[in-house]
From TrEMBL, chains A, B:
Organism: Marinilactibacillus psychrotolerans
Lineage: Bacteria, Bacillati, Bacillota, Bacilli, Lactobacillales
InterPro entries the UniProt entry points to: ATPase_NBD, Carb_Metab_Reg_Kinase/Isom, ROK
Family: Belongs to the ROK (NagC/XylR) family.
Listed CDD domains: ASKHA_NBD_ROK_BsFRK-like
Enzyme Commission number(s) from the entry: 2.7.1.4
UniProt GO MF annotations: fructokinase activity; metal ion binding
Catalytic activity: D-fructose + ATP = D-fructose 6-phosphate + ADP + H(+)
Gene3D superfamilies associated with the record: 3.30.420.40
The name this protein goes by in its record: fructokinase
Length: 249, 249
């Protein structure tokens, strides 16, 4: 059996899964204590002091990317990038079976974006102002429109502006990593119409400069729905166990 | 002994190297036949029909990245991205020892960039107009200034505009891949002052959002000078031989 904890700003999800990475039991509880108070908390060593088992620790989007990678597709894929577009924007990915990690985990959500000609919003990222997160995350949608994205009509012209920013992210990701699939998760993407708008704008930007996989199989929403992260956590636990056994032999 | 061919638009460089990847002999000759006429030429199968040895084929920037990765640093690095800023702009990289390759080789040179507030140039990329290559490659420099970059004074204010675009590329690359080092090669980067301007603008953009390695060791010019590509070719030949032997055992 494997265990996984998905620690979010709103809630913690804890699950136990079997050897097929199927969830056997799951509980969630509100985080309550402000998210900021977890800063610098030594999660890993605390867990290690309670459980004498191999443990892996990574970002939410890395876990979600890994979940989609391991359990989202019947046919094995080699490369995947997962973005969450919600309260913030984050990205994580797998290349040739390994998480994309250099001197740091990726911070893809803060990439540069070209302002939409009809958008005068200056962005609300406290670090970079008008980076992708500053322009396209949930709070930036609400700031411009006075209502949350979920309360904005599907026909509202703002969605083309939103799609324009996300499409730039798809474009840069394609040219940098050319993954087999790019997954768009998170609260904002629960607007069904949005992924189609993103695909259209992305194709318009790319100008067929590189030959991408079929668009409906290339830019997609999560196959595992909202469980990508927690199932990814179980899959990472399995990998940690495998690595620990390998290092013994 | 290993052999390498670097096929460029201006010249072909051919080299033979020893087991330490040191060049024993090298010749180069002008390409003459227009670059475009090589399109769809089956380089790999033609070589295979002459030489019964393992052969690897990749892009110029992938080879240069691999050369810098294998021979550029005394202390082993895990991740590297190499950009050439010249007639065009291209990028290639190594993550955990493997070339970054998905459904395609990367086309990082065509990433989106935010126009500089003082730059009214619309860009000359035939595909994307004002992408990085369309704004910052050699021909775009010449178009704006009436002279080639090499004939433009170090004090010319244009260089800050040029650095602004390249810095955006460094910024996006950092947030997507966080490599140990980013190498800036190609003709335009032979302006010694430019890499410093890029570093300064990059730091200004990043706002210390992620903690990067020391800047002078992070954004660098090629350690192997203009030989990164051809030495990378020799290193890829060594790797092809190694892989071929592994697959026999």
């Amino acid at each position: 059996m494997y265990g996984a904890i998905e620690a979010g700003g709103t809630k913690f999800v804890c699950a136990i899964g079997n050897e097929n990475l199927e969830i056997i039991e799951q509980v969630s509880f509100p985080t309550t204590t402000p998210k900021g108070k977890w800063r610098n908390y030594n999660f890993l060593d605390t867990l290690k002091s309670y459980f004498n088992v191999p443990i892996a620790l990574t970002t939410d989007v890395n876990a979600a990317a890994y979940g989609e990678y391991v359990k989202g597709y019947e046919k094995k894929i080699s490369n995947i990038v997962y973005f969450t577009i919600g309260t913030g924007i984050g990205g994580g990915g797998i290349l040739n079976g390994e998480l994309i990690e250099g001197f740091s985990h990726p911070e893809m959500g803060h990439m540069k974006v070209v302002p939409h000609p009809k958008d005068s919003y200056k962005g609300n990222c406290p670090f970079h102002g008008n980076c992708l997160e500053g322009m396209a995350a949930g709070p930036a949608i609400e700031k411009r429109n006075g209502v949350k994205g979920q309360d904005l009509s599907e026909e509202d012209s703002f969605w083309e502006i939103e799609a324009y920013y996300i499409a730039q992210c798809m474009y840069n990701t394609t040219l940098m990593l050319s993954p087999d699939v790019i997954v768009l998760g998170g609260g904002v993407m629960q607007q069904d119409h949005l992924v189609k708008k993103v695909r259209n704008q992305f194709k318009h930007m790319l100008k067929e400069y590189v030959q991408i996989p079929k668009i409906n199989h290339y830019i997609v929403t999560p196959k595992l729905g909202q469980r990508s992260g927690i199932i990814g956590g179980l899959a990472l636990a399995e990998k940690a166990l495998y690595n620990a056994r390998e290092s013994i032999h």
